[in-house]
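Cross-check.
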Amino acid sequence: MQMKDELDARKKRVLQAIVDDYIESAEPVGSRTLARKYDLGVSPATIRNEMADLEMLGYLEQLHTSSGRIPSSKGYRFYVDGLIPPKPVSDEEKELINRWYRARVKRIDEVFQETARIISQVTKNVSLVLAPQMTQAAFRCLQFLPLDDRRVITVLMTDAGFIENKIMRMPDGATFEDFQRMAAVINKNLAGHTLATIEHHSLAEIKDEIQDEPLYEAALSIIHRALESSKEERLYLGGTTQMLEQPEFHDVEKVKDTLLVLEEEELMKDLLHAHMGDGLEVTIGQENEDSHFKDSSLITATYHLDGELLGTIAVLGPTRMEYAKAMSLLEYMNTNLTDVIKRFHW
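Predicted model, tokenized:
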């Protein structure tokens, strides 16, 4: 590419040193700092000239005339594509992550919740996990718990550990014993059927056995709610407080719009869908189409199971993020997440 051809070896070394230093310090980088901290083999004057050239070519920016330089989106892109130093997940970190899953994950929905938590904890940035539809999970059982004289808590469970909760009002004249009887009928008829096939499964036998129209309608409501939930992708978000700890976002007014956008679930799902592909993808600063993320970078990885695309995991943070660490973590989590899901007989 032309972008790479215009930088000689020395400019590449200077650019890499600037990006590495700025990621670590969050302070604009000057020629004296580079000469003191990095063995570039040239004088501070030569480094200044190289920095001026890199700025002219669009790889660096200068916030103030008296300050040092910071990388531009173009500079970060060059760094990510060719200069980034490898930083694999350590054995200690792998063991910590595996122990975390073993200790905290009992149900399939907790897999995605804890994945979001792990990513945000390790990267110190916002994490996003787009979980797949649950239609292939099989119906296990329906239970009712008494809440008060007129209401019950409905708990629907699948073989994958997916749970749907709902508070329901009992029809007039119905008792909690009636709901327990209804649960026994439903469990006998639907156990083992996947959520995707239940709506095609004949419910006539359930209606005949219940022999109570209001109760049957209540049963249908429960089943349909579970079916609708199973068709929805779920978004798990972690680390919004981690974002506020980044120096770029100490000004709450500056980050307020971004935090509000993160609460827009459908918008965030669309953002992840737009990056759903094979392998790792990094979108930097001005490359983001959404104006709320022009000062942010998004790293995404799509995970599969038995060749089927399941969902996306992502890190969202300032352009001054530790790319090597975040990219290595997502690659590891991508593989590990598939293994964890398999434990639940997906």
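The chain has a mean pLDDT of 84. Strands lie at 60-62, 69-71, 126-131, 139-146, 151-158, 163-169, 234-238, 280-284, 296-305, 308-318. Passed to J.P. for a second look.
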